[in-house]
Amino acid sequence: MDVPTVDQEEERYPVVHMHRGSAIRRPLIVLAVCAVAALGYVARDFLIPTAGAVVLALMLTPVANTFERLRLRATAAALASVTMLALGLALLLAISVPALTNWVDQAPFLTYTLERKLEGVRRSLAVVQEVSKQVEQATSGAAPSTPAAAPPEKVVVRERSLINDLVSTTPGLLLQILYAAVLAFLLLGHRNGARRQIMRIPAAFDTRLRVARVMRDINDRVGQYLFSLAVIYSGVAALATVALMLLGFPNAIIWGALLGIASFVPFIGPAVTIAVVAVVALITFDDWPRIVAAPAVLLLIHGVESQFITPMFVSRRCALNTVAVFASIALLGWMWGAIGAIVAVPLLILVSTIAAHLPSLRWLEVLLSDDRPVSERIARKPSLASVTRPPVKAPKTGPTRQRRRLAAAK
User: Fold this and answer.
1) Disulfide engineering: 260 pairs with which of 160, 237, 336, 378, CB 3.0-4.6 Å?
2) Are residues 101 and 203 in contact, defined by beta-carbon separation less than 8 angstroms?
3) In sequence order, what are the residues at sequence separation of 6 or more whose Cβ sits closer than 8 angstroms to the Cβ of residue 144?
4) Three-state DSSP state, 320
């Protein structure tokens, strides 16, 4: 068996060396990361809808481009894209609100049903605990002790209702949703003009070329990645809804849509959704075949999607380190909640794409990549035709120029 040499390993996995002055740069990098994390936690009420609007704008960019190919103006295309998404979410919310209200009203009955069905499991655990206690007393030789009377428990009732919580949190939530929708519309409608304005900022041609490539790759990697995932997870939601309807599961469209939305959070979202569906199936059904079939069907759909469908279409656009993905989901989920967990992977792809074009951030791009850094695939792309150096024209001489001078003199 041939052992790979050091040169072969360096060719396969490029080595990135820190430049001089790294002794000062590393503490500054650590301080900058801590400052950004602290700012993200303190300003989360502003940054959560802003990050959501950026992700929505990138996801809806292919839709807006399709509308523009149909001879719609950029503003009309952006308005149509945002309106379609808003109508879909409003329809899902209109279907979900009555079911959520019904569950809240029946919460005591559902809790009693769950406790009754788990009574056998609780008794089995109590028997096992009693047997283990007797075995422990027999081996230690101690006399069985009579249980001491437990002190009376104090029950404190807090007067806090769900309606009061909704009334207190709804205005702020509506303002954040409105701000995110307006910002996404503005980013979509003015994306071409903003791209031209950004291209005018750098003075050097090489810097303009790098900025143009960064914007192109952000559109290719993040926008196409999010749009592809949205299409795949829409199919997952539809398939899960049909499967749950065939099993007689209540409010199947809500649980199917929840699985589609939760799939945007790798590792965590589908697992939590399947676990909740298993609990609801245990409460709803009385026969074990349907109790087991509901989470099993969702697990099968998620397994086929994650192992075959998604790698077939989006693996080339998203080559990130699994540990970095999990850590970013955990961090942004802790800082920003569910929205932070959803936008964690798109923001990580955005950071990786920008770092691939900046030599000073090459180390970050290597850490975030999987096997091959993104810059190796970016280097194989053709150059941009829109930023190619224009040819230098020679000054016009000859009789044509002399005739123009005579005409101007007359």
Assistant:
1) 237
2) no
3) 134, 137
4) strand
Q: Nearest CA to 210 among 381, 366, 62, 60?
A: 381
pTM of the model: 0.71
Instruction: Yes or no: say if 231 and 371 are a contact pair by the CB < 8 Å rule.
Output: no
Which amino acid, one-letter code, is at 242?
V
**Looking at this protein, which amino acid is placed at residue 218?**
I
Determine which of 16-30, 83-97, 261-275, 348-362 has the lowest per-residue pLDDT on average.
16-30
Query: Is residue 78 a contact partner of residue 185, using CB atoms and an 8 Å limit?
Result: yes
What are the Cα distances from residue 326, in Å, to 49, 208, 236, 266, 330?
A: 22, 34, 22, 8, 6
User: Would you say residue 133 lies in a domain?
Assistant: no
What are the CA-CA distances from residue 30 to residues 36, 123, 217, 341 (Å)? Answer: 10, 53, 28, 23
**Cβ contacts of 277 within 8 Å, gap of 6 or more:** 244, 249, 255, 294, 295, 298
Q: How far apart are the first and last CA of the chain?
A: 89
Q: What is the pLDDT of residues 173-231, one digit of tens each?
A: 888 889 999 999 999 999 888 888 888 888 888 888 888 888 888 877 778 888 888 89
CA distances in angstroms from 342 to 91, 334, 346, listed in the order given: 21, 12, 8
DSSP letter (8 states) at residue 70:
T
Do 376 and 16 contact (CB within 8 A), yes or no?
Answer: no
User: In sequence order, what DSSP letters do the residues of 40-56 get, joined into one string?
Assistant: HHHTHHHHHHHHHHHHH
Contact (CB, 8 A) for 247 and 290: yes
- Which domain does 239 fall in, by range? 40-119+173-386
156 occurs within a structural domain: no
Tokens 């499967």 locate to 243
Determine which helix (DSSP H) or strand (DSSP E) holds 375, and give its type and residue range: helix 374-379
Tokens 């390993």, located at residue: 9
For 320, phi and psi rounded to 5 degrees? Answer: -115, 155
Give dist(CA 218, CA 196) in Å, integer: 15
Rounded (to 5) percent helix, strand, coil in the chain: 75, 0, 20
CA distance 186 to 78: 8
The number of distinct structural domains making up the chain is 1
For residue 168, tell me if it sits in a domain.
no
Residue 240, burial from CB neighbour count under 10 angstroms (0-12, 13-18, 19+)? buried
SS3 168: helix
Q: Quick check: is 282 in a domain?
A: yes
- Identify residue 323 by its one-letter amino acid code: V
